[in-house]
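#help-structures
NK: newbie question, is this the right format to request a structure? protein is Response regulator transcription factor
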Amino acid sequence: MIIISESLAEELQNNITVLQEKFTQAQFVLAYRNPEIARDFILQGQHGTALAKISFLPMTLEIDRWMAILRLLVCGEKYVPYELFDSPASAGPDAAPEARRNTVPPASKLAKLTERELQVLSSVSEGKQNKIIAAELALSEHTVKLHIHNMIAKLGVNNRTEAAICYLADQSGADGPPR
């Protein structure tokens, strides 16, 4: 199995045939946080291309669900999450790109976070290190890391800095940088 990050999605689309010829026994899996990238693969795969053989690994799931999907993939099964079909993008390639994008402002996604995750995110937005956050909130560093991982997934961002920007924008009451 070869797992490809969504950051390399375009390269995978351009080179899938060559890769499949070179690695004939390999199963290709796209690991994604942004469902739109995965939906593009599905739309292109509908035209009978080599992309139709790609499986998908959502990186925004709870760890137990994520591991279950990974086990399926390791066993050679193909996996395509339902969420990739449940959107305006599934209407087809003629759908307007604006309709396929997430129109919820990033700051409103904070409602998905637990109270503890918001506490951790507040400290992250102040530039504090994990060990400092752990000491202040009476948590282990590992727990702080798990909270940060979950926040990144729930907010649909790529790292703690983007999560902090989302938090600060919410605190300022705007979509832009904080006051």
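mod (FA): yep, format's fine, and the tokens are attached above. Helices lie at 9-22, 35-45, 63-74, 97-100, 115-125, 130-137, 141-155, 160-172.
NK: thank you!
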